[in-house]
Design goal:
CATH topology of one domain: Nucleotidyltransferase, domain 5
Radius of gyration: 24 Å
CATH superfamily of one domain: Ribonuclease H-like superfamily/Ribonuclease H
CATH class of one domain: Alpha Beta
Number of strands: 4
Number of helices: 8
Distance between the termini: 62 Å
Strand content: 5-15%
Helix content: 40-55%
CATH architecture of one domain: 2-Layer Sandwich
Structural class: alpha+beta
Largest sheet: 2 strands, antiparallel
Strand order of the largest sheet: 1-2
Order of helices and strands: EEHEHEHHHHHH
């Protein structure tokens, strides 16, 4: 992280493409431990860029494979390519969708939204809310108005204000 207007974002990416993102004040071992404990399974194998903060204190019992690579080695096979792509796509999304107008106090909410969208980009209809609603409507017999309003009770607000009843 460098520059006066930059914020630190911790990134964890799985082989299958799912990501976890967290806005952090720093990248010391205590912060990385909190992130790892909340976002990375204990039996996961962690491949990192070799940052000193990734150690047995921050990662606990997780298997750790630090990969310090030169630029030439990264061009051949980047060990943390998924994290690099995630950050690049996140930056494009923030600039394109929000015109870069993201304040630090709201950054975690934007990171959560991005991760939600990113992790569901290949999801089939079963887990998408709109698709599930449509599937349930199509799979049932038609709903009549009588069935829709049967056993309904008047809103408490209208009971308290009888002059507004229609």
């Amino acid at each position: 992280m460098s520059g006066p207007n930059k914020e630190l974002v911790l990134v964890a990416a799985e082989k299958n493409g799912r990501v976890r993102l967290a806005h952090a004040d720093n990248n010391d071992a205590a912060t990385l431990k909190q992130f790892a404990d909340g976002q990375i399974a204990v039996d996961a194998r962690v491949v990192s860029d070799g940052h000193a903060g990734y150690n047995s204190t921050s990662l606990g019992e997780r298997s750790h494979q630090p990969r310090v690579q030169t630029k030439a080695e990264r061009r051949e096979d980047d060990a943390v390519q998924a994290c690099h792509w995630t950050i690049a796509l996140l930056k494009r999304w923030l600039l394109g969708t929000h015109a870069g107008a993201v304040r630090p106090k709201h950054l975690q909410a934007y990171l959560d939204e991005y991760a939600f969208r990113h992790n569901r980009r290949r999801t089939n209809g079963v887990t998408r809310i709109a698709a599930r609603v449509l599937e349930s409507l199509v799979a049932r017999p038609p709903l009549t108005m009588r069935a829709l309003v049967r056993d309904t009770v008047r809103s408490r607000w209208f009971v308290a204000h009888p002059e507004l009843r229609g």
